Amino acid sequence: MSNSARLALLGPHGLDAEGIADFVTALKAACESGDVAAVILRLAATDERGLTARVKSVAPIVQERGAALVVACPGFTGDLAAVAIRGGADGIHVDKPRDLKDLRGRLRDGRILGAGGLETKHGAMEAGEAGIDYLMFGGLYPDGVAPEAETVRVRAAWWAEIFETPCIAVAAAADEIAPLAATGAEFVGLESGLWLQDPGAVERAQRAVRESEA
C-alpha cells in the first residue's frame, strides 16, 4: 500500500442519459490531468437496460486510463450488481446498506463492493466485517447538502488508524483535501463540484495531497 492517498472522482448525483455525453467529456479531461484511482458513477434510477447502457458508455473511458469504475444508484430497487456486471463496471457502491453479505457473495471475480452513508461507528464496523472493499466517509447527500467537514475528517482518521479495510474520505471543498489526506485514508474523494468543470482540479488535488505529507 502506498503512503500517498490516491484520488477518487465522484460523479454528480442523478446522472441521466442526457447528461452522460458531457460527463464523459469532462471525465476524460480529468483523468488525463493526473492519477485517478477510481470513479464513482452516481446514476439516476431507471430500468436495468437503461442503467446498463449508461455504464457501458462510461466504463471504457475510465478503465482505459487505469482507474476503476464503481456504480451507485440510490433510488434503484432492482439488481445493481447485475447492472454493473453487464455494463462492464468494476463494482458497485451502496449507501446505508442492509444486504452487504449477499452482495459480497454475488460480486465475484475481483469486483468491488463499497459502502457509504454510515453515520455511526457501529454501522461502519459492521460493514467492514461484511467484507467490503472500501468504506466511504463524506460525500454530498442527494439533496446537495454536505456533511460537516470536521466530522468526515475525524471519522476517516479513526478508521484509517484502526482498520485495514481502505477508506475514501470525500472533500466537498478544495481546502478539505490536504486535511483528509493527512488522516491516513487510502483515498481522497473529490466531489463533482471540484472537478467536473475544472480539468486542472486533479493535478491541484494531487499537489495538496503531497503537501499534506511534507
UniProtKB/TrEMBL annotation:
Pfam families: TMP-TENI. InterPro entries: Aldolase_TIM, ThiamineP_synth_sf, ThiamineP_synth_TenI. Residues 21-190 form the Thiamine phosphate synthase/TenI domain. Gene3D superfamilies: Aldolase class I (3.20.20.70). CDD domains: TMP_TenI (cd00564). It comes from the Bacteria. This is Thiamine phosphate synthase. It comes from Methylobacterium oryzae.
